[in-house]
Amino acid sequence: MRKGTRAKPSKRATLKNRKVLIAGGLGFIGSNLARRLVGIGARVTILDNLMPDSGANWFNIAGIRNGLRVNISDVQGIQSMCYLVKDQEYLFNLAGQTSHLDSMHDPYTDLEINCRAQLSILEACRHHNPKIKVVYASTRQVYGKPDSFPVNENHLLRPVDVNGINKMAGEWYHILYNNVYGVTACALRLTNTYGPRMRVKDARQTFLGFWIRRLVEGKPFQVWGGRQLRDFTFVDDAVEALILAATDDAAKGCVFNLGGCEVVSLKELAALLVEINGGGDYNVCPYPPEQKRIDIGDYYADYQKIQSALGWRPRVGLRAGLARTLRYYHKNLGRYL
Ligand SMILES: NC(=O)c1ccc[n+]([C@@H]2O[C@H](COP(=O)([O-])OP(=O)(O)OC[C@H]3O[C@@H](n4cnc5c(N)ncnc54)[C@H](O)[C@@H]3O)[C@@H](O)[C@H]2O)c1
After folding, report:
1. For the purposes of burial, counting CB atoms within 10 Å of the CB of 270, is it exposed (0-12), middle (13-18) or buried (19 or more)?
2. Relative to the CA of 50, which ligand 1 atom is closest?
3. How far is CA 314 from CA 67, 146, 266, in A?
């Protein structure tokens, strides 16, 4: 099959004038999605609790603040979830604790948000709005250390950290509610996602964000290991996949990998970033032991399944995506520290 084509066309809806709830919408991916949906003319409500140390940031919705509603609440609150899902047509479920290391330091918080709260969200849908369509942001972390490459959706799930285990449960609750209760749901297993509005303060969520911060500040950054292979999805491509998954009937009950245009080692990524930035320094050093224990080694995804079913593929190459990201932080870094 040619790239970008799919097996057979299926019914695809439009989100113009549709009522859409984005859980985690003040964060990195959720706010980029909100910006796109406001542009399309969707009626967007963001639900977010501005979780400390997450990517939540009011600046992420600068310029679209008047085009949507924001409800500051917690997905763990069953009553507020019941109220918020009522009358909505789509739910993009991006509210999550995303730090792998934090999930090891504080496994209970990760459990409450990524596992237990997911049930509250789905129970609210089942009892108060079973016709809603839900897209869940899952993660490649559910695979753990891969046995074979590129990793496809049939690969064994063997997470190496608490976050991966809880996200796996969250993902399967969604598929279960789809299969058993008829709440239309699907899950996208995101790989490293990057772009404007990502958290750059420290390496808690993503090393790439912190590299970008250090470069923009004119300081050297550290590359741990460096030989690991990874794929990266530019956030606009991730947003496109989320929208396709919500609006295409072919996604119902499915789990799909997302992937990137290129596979690179972290050393190659560091060199590319410095080149695009027009300068900068980095040191290659061993993994800190705490990180090493939960490292997954190489990872890159096979995204054939979503390509065949929904016609999605990554379109923004690494060079272009990194250039756009660097430009954004050269201008706006102060808003993210
Ligand atoms: N960014 C990536 O590379 C990546 C990779 C794989 C999966 N994902 C998944 O995508 C989703 C979004 O990730 P992101 O990078 O935008 O993270 P982010 O931290 O920028 O956004 C998450 C948002 O969820 C909100 N949130 C957290 N707990 C909440 C709660 N209990 N109630 C309400 N809101 C809550 C936070 O305040 C934040 O605004 C997450 O579920 C994450 O697991 C992201």
Report:
1. buried
2. 37
3. 28, 21, 19
